[in-house]
Amino acid sequence: MMDTYLRRISLTISRCASLYLRIALAAAFLTSVTDRWGIWGPPGTMNVAWGDMAHFMAYAAKLNPWFPIRVIPVVSWFVTVAETVLALALLLGFHTRMSARLSGWLLLAFGIGMTAGTGIKSALNASVFSASAGAFLLATSAQYPFSFDSLRRREKRDAALNACIRSKRKNTCHTSLVPHPR
After folding, report:
1. What is the distance between the alpha carbons of residues 117 and 71, in angstroms, rounded to a whole number?
2. How many angstroms separate the Cα of 56 from the Cα of each of 16, 25, 133, 161, 175?
3. Which of 23, 68, 77, 98 yields a CA-CA distance of 20 to 30 A from 86?
4. What is the pLDDT of residues 31-79, one digit of tens each?
């Protein structure tokens, strides 16, 4: 009895943690992107890292000393678009596993760049490696509640169940109706 209760609590915590990670990672990406667009205020305002794309590109050049300066605008815009797309995918739960993996790699690359450009302390202060680890952990989650992925999964399960019901032969359904953990 207690074992079932603990399993149920563990599943609930896991589902809540998955949702929490999706929202936290998306918020981190969107906060950075909106800072580059000047939504949080102009450069120099308290709690504003860049304030516009020009200041972000200067920072990106600092973090990527191995790239020629003429490539930095492309890198800056690529990262901005990637962060926007990944944030939306995580929020909506659309291809969550792949979005989480890509987020983990992007954050790891950002952490490496911060370490190379400004030192390990700034990367640790910004918790970039922790966010990257969280994204990789999210990719291993068995379920993504409140997501397009869970809706697609439910539709597949219901289609399999209906096929079994329509078969009219007892005990002949070989399709698994239990959600696969991965």
Report:
1. 16
2. 34, 20, 24, 52, 52
3. 68
4. 999 999 999 999 999 999 999 999 999 999 999 999 999 999 999 999 9
Other C-beta atoms closer than 10 Å to the C-beta of 53 total 16
Q: What is the pLDDT of residues 125-140, one digit of tens each?
A: 999 999 999 999 999 9
Distance between CA 160 and CA 164 in Å, rounded?
Answer: 6
One DSSP character per residue, the chain reads -HHHHHHHHHHHHHHHHHHHHHHHHHHHHHHHHHHHTTTT-STTSTT-S-SSHHHHHHHHHHH-TTS-GGGHHHHHHHHHHHHHHHHHHHHHTSSHHHHHHHHHHHHHHHHHHHHHHH-HHHHHHTTHHHHHHHHHHHTT-S--SSSHHHHHHHHHHHHHHHHHHHT-STT---S--SPP--
How many CB atoms are closer than 10 A to CB 85?
14
Written as one letter, the residue type at 61 is A
